[in-house]
Each structure stands twice: as structure tokens, then as C-alpha cells.
Amino acid sequence: MTAYVFIAEALFFAFVVLIFMGALLAVHARLLMHAVLGLAVCLLGVAGIYFYLGSIFLTMMQILIYVGAICILMVFGVMVGYTPQEIAESNLKGKNRFLALGAAFSGFVLLLTALLRATFRPAAETVGDFSLPWLGETLLYRYCLAFELISVVLLAAIIGAIILATGGRETEKC
């Protein structure tokens, strides 16, 4: 075994260990900020796997979108969210629990029904070569509307989270 192969395999296993350690930290953390940190470490490990596989573009998008945007958005949500004392004071029992279970069950049934009725088949058209110019043209011309709609939905979710986070608090007047 040459030195390059050994280094490549060691790098791969280091990324896998990084993924598992980050996932364990995210799942077993007692504080939400530690869970977000574990998620960021796990996602950096996934970016490392993309780098190992030779996809620099996917590596950069993983770091930019997931580690950068999603984890920062979660930290922002933690910062504007309720404190543990405010959560303990609110009444989240009774009717709300049954409504949440009903909504979760109906969503599960709808998704299961859609998956069971769907027919999955390979795409009939030829796919591009996955080069950066082909990917840019495809995203710009073919999927432009979908990405614009996703960005509008994300913006609405951020604004809604801010309104919900600050709407229930009463400000003290001096």
C-alpha cells in the first residue's frame, strides 16, 4: 500500500469519525447550543466526505448552505426563543398535545399515501455531464422558479419565527 492510499483512507475514516462524533454530540447534548455545535461538526464531516469524493462544488455548497446558513439560523432561533423559565411557565398540556398528535398523524398518513401511490421510474431525458457550466445553466433556466419559491418560503419562515418568538413576550416599562 502506498503512502497516498494510506493517507486517503485515514482521511476518509477521520471524516467518518467526525460525522459520528458530531451526531452523538447533537443527539446527546443537554443544551441546545451544544446540539447545534454537534450538528455543525457533523455537517462539516459530510463536507469532508464530499471533498474526499472529489466534488469541490458540493463541498463548498455543504459548508455554505448547511454549516453556514442552517446552523446560524438555528443559533439565531435559540437567541430569540423563549428561556427555560418562560417555557416552564406556559401551559403546553391538554388540548395542544392532542392537536399536535393529530396533525403529526395526518401528515404521516398523507405522506405515506403519496409515497405508496407514486410511480418511481428513471428519467427519460439525458442528464448533463454535471460540470459547473451545465449545472449553472440548469439552475438558471430550468429550475429558476423553484429556487425563487424556496427562497420566498424560507424568508416567510424566518419572518414568522421572529414574529412568534417576540410576540408572546411582554416588555417591561421603566
Write the layout of secondary structure elements.
Elements: H1 3-28, H2 32-52, H3 56-80, H4 84-89, H5 95-117, H6 132-142, H7 144-167
Helix pairs in contact: 1-2, 2-3
Low-confidence stretches: none
Structural class: mainly alpha
Number of domain units: 2
Approximate helicity band: over 70%
> Which architecture of the largest domain per CATH?
Up-down Bundle
Strand % is under 5%
Name of the CATH homologous superfamily of the largest domain:
NADH-ubiquinone/plastoquinone oxidoreductase chain 6, subunit NuoJ
**What's the total helix number?**
7
- Name the shape in a single word: extended
Give keywords.
2 domains; extended; 174 residues; mainly alpha; 78% helix
Description of the molecule:
- This protein is mostly helical.
- The protein folds into two domains: 1-80, NADH-ubiquinone/plastoquinone oxidoreductase chain 6, subunit NuoJ (Four Helix Bundle (Hemerythrin (Met), subunit A), Up-down Bundle); 128-174.
- It has seven helices and no strands.
- It has helices at residues 3-28, 32-52, 56-80, 84-89, 95-117, 132-142, 144-167.
- The protein is extended.
- The chain starts with a helix and ends in a 7-residue tail after the last helix.
